[in-house]
Amino acid sequence: MFGVGRGYHTREVETFGSPIIDQNANRELFEEQVEIIFKAFNNERFSHKGKHYTLPPEVPYRGYQLKELTLVPRPVHTPVETWQPIVSATPRAMDFMIRHGIKGAVGGGAATMAEGPIHAYRDAAGRAGQHLELGENLTVGIFFHLAKTREQAIAEMTPWYEEHVKMFAPLGFVPGITPDQVKATPRRGGWAEAGVPSLDHFMKTGAWFAGTPDELTAYLKVLEQRYPGMRHINLSTSMGTPKARMLEQFQWVSEDVMPHFRGN
Known about the structure:
This protein folds into two domains: 1-78, no CATH class; 81-264, TIM Barrel (Alpha-Beta Barrel), CATH 3.20.20. Strands 5, 6, 7, 8 and 9 form a five-stranded parallel β-sheet that branches. The chain is of the alpha/beta class. It starts with 22 loop residues before the first helix and ends in an 8-residue tail after the last helix. Helices cover 41% and strands 12% of the residues. Helix 2 crosses helix 3. It has helices at 23-42, 91-100, 115-127, 150-168, 179-184, 191-194, 199-205, 213-226, 243-256, and strands at 48-49, 54-55, 60-61, 64-65, 83-85, 103-106, 138-146, 208-211, 232-236.
């Protein structure tokens, strides 16, 4: 949709064709790219002239100077609702999200399940003159598995949790894991001796849940009280869960958990 070819830059970047490892420069490019995307989403016609990009490029086009661009097809609903994971929760990142109306996902995947990002997002809104309730415009991501007893749920979920760690720890998406622990994850056994975080550890942080439907309902009620502005919860089955079990799990949620929250 938006090429990063030389014709679209106001200046050539020496690292063109290779990753930019300067994080400040990388962030600067990213922020301008997002600004362009939102202009394209929310305007019938748009142009952009920034530090790194000029759109449309200042070149002759079919015998005339092109002044504006259109996005085809355009989004059906505008403004476009946009969500992104909150990872670092730095003031710069939070201010950027608030400025563009980007909603945030806390927990699940790369995002860290912690109180800090939730408060940081509300604080950033306050700096921009917006009043948000704690948790407003945010969602919490939880990997979950239901069974008739908590013990059964933990036993069934543990191998899928371990597959998740094997896949995502080398990518840096298992919070708190050390390089030595990452090296231990491909091995059969020895995880406890290496100190690899267990399923129980992440259940205590709230990022993973294993238990009965009633216990999940109670946990979500706690979150509802803790974050009065939050209106969304992202429940996910972990990688490796068979399709039939996934469908079974979400059917269980729809029948035994969701009715406790409808109309709220």
